[in-house]
Amino acid sequence: MSSATVTTHPTAADAPVAGPAVVVENLRVAFAGREVVHGISFAAERGSCLAIVGESGSGKSVSARSLVGLAGPGAEVRADTLAVGGLDVRGFGERSWRRVRGDRIGFVLQDALVSLDPVRPVGREIAEALRVHGVVPRSGRREKVLELLRDAAVPEPELRAAQRPGELSGGLCQRALIASALAADPDVIVADEPTTALDVTVQAQVLELLADLKRAGRTIVLISHDLSVVAHLADHVLVMAGGRVVEEGPAGQVLGAPREPYTRALLQAVPGAGTRGQRLSPAPQVPLPPSPGRRRSAPGADGSPVLAAHGLVKDFPLPDGGRLRAVDDVGFSLRAGSTLGVVGESGSGKSTTARLALALESADRGSVELHGAAWSGLAEKHRRGRRGAISVVSQDPLSSFDPRWSVEQVLLDAVPGADHPTAAARRARVADLVARVGLDPAVLGRRPLTLSGGQRQRVAIARALAPDPDVVVLDEAVSALDVSVQAQILDLLVDLQQAFGLAYLFISHDLGVISHLSDHVLVMKDGRVVEEGHPEQLFTPPADPYTRRLVASLRRLETRPALERTTP
Amino acid sequence: MTRISPDQSRWWRRWAGRAGSAVVVVWGAATVAFLAQLAQPGDRATAVLNLRTGQTQERSPDELAPINAEYGFDRSAPAQYLEYLTGLLRGDLGTSYQQHRPVWDVVSEQLPGTLALTGTTLMLAWVLMLAWVLLTAGRGRRIGGWGAAVDSVLASLPQYWLGVVLLLVFAFGLGWFPVVGGTGPVRIVLPALTLALPLAGFLAQSTRTEFERVLEQPFVLSARLRGSGDLAVRLRHVLRHAALAPLTLTGWALGATISGAVIVETVFARRGIGRTLVTAVESQDLPIVTGIVVLTAVAYVVINLVLDALYPLLDPRVTP
């Protein structure tokens, strides 16, 4: 990578000139006549990091891809200036663009697992970039691939280069992807949500790698919806919404003292230990209709747990004949009106714990009790009558809806016939549920596919509430949402808990969300609970080394803007 | 990688399983063919004698006795079945009623022609299909739409009609190819095209769907962002994924090609198993029919085993 003596741009016109590495003025992008980016301007100084922040649909990714001529099929891109390393790229044809891609701008996509060809070894993907740009002769390619992997902090590069993405961990995949983007030694790295699919500790390592690249003099354009990632790396921040730049400035100013209400709301929406008991979204509380007579008499009013687990153990067989202990001696108790947070990285056993609590999976050892009565270890027919007492909201509600059903059908299906014997009563119940989760009754006629992410998650919550449960298991229920939508859903969950005394078993990889919501937290690693307690005592300071790493890797916005928050 | 792994015993077990089920398929086909012989209406010895003499008349037991003894018709059905199966194991497919020669001799004379036709057909179909899909898939609404429309039209062409049209246009009209006979590879072009064009359309339909899905995948965008050209992306990344579905269909296509050979060999007056089969069915020469059925089953099983071995080369995530 340190090919200081070699210049790959011999012609005078191509020679790097002083000035910003990327300059964009009045960029407009339209698809089929519909403009999605409305004249934005920005510049990235050499050796600095420019962050473009925005929620889905803000036009941030399309803008970044316009820099390499891949805004998308049928995109019409116009700009007064579009310069990469002093080179005017407007009106470039496919051949010219190919010399920009990889050579001048290295582009890193999110989710390396699907951004690398799943049937090819990662070494070949990196070698492809070397071949395309003729970086090294064929004979030197293998050595260069290993060097690139080593530079991207991939251990055992000889072994890794021969492995396919599916055989590597998410973090190693992302590093390999970054190595392939760096192959032709580009001056500019565009990273589009480079850490979104990663566990927090891995996320920190990848961010560190990007920071190293910046220190080595490369220009980074970081695209992200995650303000804590941005706070860690950016020198200059551009906040986008609806295809326009809402606010821009030095990172410290935009994140620390934002001028625009939109940026303030965005920052306010980030959950964390400091936001407990506060509303995250500017939206007012949904006026809750009076609850119709509850089926059960106030459960757990005597202080006994509504859901309790003792010594849960679950093994899964591995393809090579061995066994994987997914859950190892996990116990907890959950009281009415409280939230138990379970935090851990992928593969830590938190989702299996949730499935055991729901009795969707049977434990190899240990037991689960619901309302003090046996819940695990029963035949399903003995459980069925009590299923309504515990319900679930999953990460991706869309796949849990029948796509051919309307929202009303989805909800009617979940309303128990025993409690609401007539069709009219069931319809009334659905109307009541929709109002509770703050949805417009007009969505009832629509199909899940036509709803926004936040609306879908509200429908999923309404469905979970339909049988009038005492316990709701929320498995990564807000992880796929934009931060402002996530804030609204978290506020809704708090409102519902207070109104109905619900108990939440809240599973998440996101420490911020967990510490915002939970009364008690289990930290899981490799199937075991490594630490537990109240979120504040747990995270300041954590006793367990793993929790310490987890907390350290959580990039907080150190200086949160002082804002008037609407307290519930 | 040639590392010795604990997976090796599982590899052997998996292939033993595949070979076992291949044997079961052939055995099943052989058994059904045998039962069909038993179920033939009328006395078989009479049929054989009439077939040989070209007359149709009642025969006396004295006349029938040598035939019954020769073919073992006088023995019980299970005994005949057992003899038939042990014959198959020795590679003995029986004796033709009409020609009074071993079935294998009759069939093996015709086999090379049909094998050449089937092989050329499969190759042509793949080449045409790949070229067409690479050229038209994922090229926007208009070109992609045209590509898909041509797939559908090709896939729905009836072979007997296509054969006649090709013959009229390229042999009679333009005179590029011999009408009948001819020598060398030239004479196989039109018959193979007759079978390959509908097959190419059929394979292209499944390839195109997958091809266009893979073109949308992030790893394809990633390759473009690296600076790879469009053709390189299509050849190096997309094709490999999209080729899996038509590969599976090729096993099935082999069976279809052999039955298609019946039509093509008649239209183009070629020697081959197809015509032999038609003649044998017409003259009720059942051992020939049975022999061809068993051989087709063997060919079908073999090509599927070959495909099983090919999958992991295309997609290493599939365990061999």
From TrEMBL, chain A:
Superkingdom assignment: Bacteria
> Which InterPro entries does this UniProt record tie to the protein?
AAA+_ATPase, ABC_transp_ATP-bind, ABC_transporter-like_ATP-bd, ABC_transporter-like_CS, Oligopep_ABC_C, P-loop_NTPase
Question: What is an annotated GO biological process for this record, any one?
Answer: peptide transport
Region annotation (Disordered) ranges = 273-304
User: What SMART domains does the database record attribute to this sequence?
Assistant: AAA
Molecular function terms, GO-annotated: ATP binding; ATP hydrolysis activity
Note the Gene3D superfamilies from the entry.
P-loop containing nucleotide triphosphate hydrolases
Name this polypeptide is given = Peptide/nickel transport system ATP-binding protein
UniProtKB/TrEMBL annotation, chain B:
Task: Enumerate the Pfam families for this protein.
Answer: BPD_transp_1, BPD_transp_1_N
Q: Gene3D superfamilies in the record, alphabetically?
A: MetI-like
Q: Which UniProt keywords apply?
A: Cell membrane, Membrane, Transmembrane, Transmembrane helix, Transport
GO CC, any one term: plasma membrane
InterPro entries per UniProt? BPD_transp_1_N (IPR045621), MetI-like (IPR000515), MetI-like_sf (IPR035906)
Task: Please give the superkingdom of this protein's source.
Answer: Bacteria
Q: Does the keyword Heme apply?
A: no
Tell me what topology the record assigns in the membrane: Multi-pass membrane protein
Report the SUPFAM superfamilies cross-referenced here: MetI-like (SSF161098)
| Domain ABC transmembrane type-1 intervals | 111-311
What is its subcellular localisation? Cell membrane
Main location as per UniProt: membrane
Keyword Protein biosynthesis present in the record's keywords: the answer is no
- Report a single Gene Ontology molecular function: dipeptide transmembrane transporter activity
- By its UniProt entry, which PROSITE patterns does this protein fall under? ABC_TM1 (PS50928)
Xref: PANTHER family:
DIPEPTIDE TRANSPORT SYSTEM PERMEASE PROTEIN DPPB-RELATED (PTHR43163)
Family of this protein? Belongs to the binding-protein-dependent transport system permease family.
* Name this polypeptide is given: Peptide/nickel transport system permease protein
